[in-house]
Amino acid sequence: MKKYLVIALALFFVLPSVLAIDLNVQKISKNEVMVVGLDNPATISLNITNLGPTDKFSFYTFFGMGLKPTESIEILSGKSKEVQLEVFPRNDISFKGPTTFDIFIQGRDKSEITYKETLTIIPLGEAFEIGADSINPESNSIKIYIKNKVNFKFDDLKMKLTSPFFELESTKSFSPYETKILETSLDKDDFSKLIAGFYTLKADLKIENVSAQIEEQINFLEKNILKEERKITA
Question: Of 21, 127, 159, 200, which has the most beta carbons under 10 Å away?
Fold first, then answer.
């Protein structure tokens, strides 16, 4: 009887290690963010190598509203596969800054491993940067850039750009880290009475029900008086 008890206990302790999945998980992507108020998911790319037998693996988390894909992914024994996980935020998320949470990878036999992930939650205004060319009194147009500074995709971002020199509205979609250039014409009468110096460029941003305002400066250059005098006396 004692012999069978010893065998049973041995199996109890050995079985979990035999059944446990054996994966090597390496992160490919980096600097993932979520934006406060948006339902858009953060996308995490993982390279997963199956060091055990061929299996189908499912992924889940208790952070936010869960993740995709919801279906299991098969990885052959000894093979690697790149897996993209979309992590969805809670609707009521309001805190900002880095947050760490667990992603669970589970095999068909319900054995699993835990992978820790960290992403940063930011307000919309921290995701973008704007800037513009300097303006001189002879300028007929100006180029303005809008840069997505973060690893996050924005669809149909509404932008209203205003300054003493122009007003411009546009709707654009941005891939992670993408910069877009907008160009608009200038009416010299609009700034004929302005003096040289720095003026404020404002960008009102809106996507879904989330809005933000960011600012930058435009340099208005002095008129080249010497050049004008030469034209008159020539």
Answer: 127
Q: And the tokens for 78? A: 């000894």
210: β partners: 207
**pTM of the complete model:** 0.78
Q: Are 139 and 222 in contact (CB under 8 A)?
A: no
CB of 160 within 8 A of CB of 204? yes
Please write the tens of the pLDDT for every residue from 13-42: 444 444 579 999 999 999 999 999 998 899
**Short-list 125, 88, 154, CA closest to 214:** 125
8 A C-beta contact, residue 205 and residue 212 = yes
pLDDT surpasses 80 at 209: yes
C-alpha 220: how far from chain center: 33
Element (H, E) at 19: helix 2-19
Pick the CATH number of 124-230 from 2.60.40.10, 3.40.50.720, 3.30.930.10, 2.60.40.2340: 2.60.40.10
Q: Are 89 and 32 in contact (CB under 8 A)?
A: no
- Give residue-wise pLDDT tens across range 64-111: 888 999 999 999 999 999 999 999 988 777 788 999 999 999 999 999
- Residue 193 zone, left/alpha/beta (φ > 0; ψ -120 to 50; rest): alpha
For 117-134, b where at least 16 C-beta lie within 10 A, e where not — what string?
Answer: bebbbbebbbbbebebee
Q: Which are the contacts of 185, defined by CB distance < 8 A and separation ≥ 6?
A: 140, 141, 166
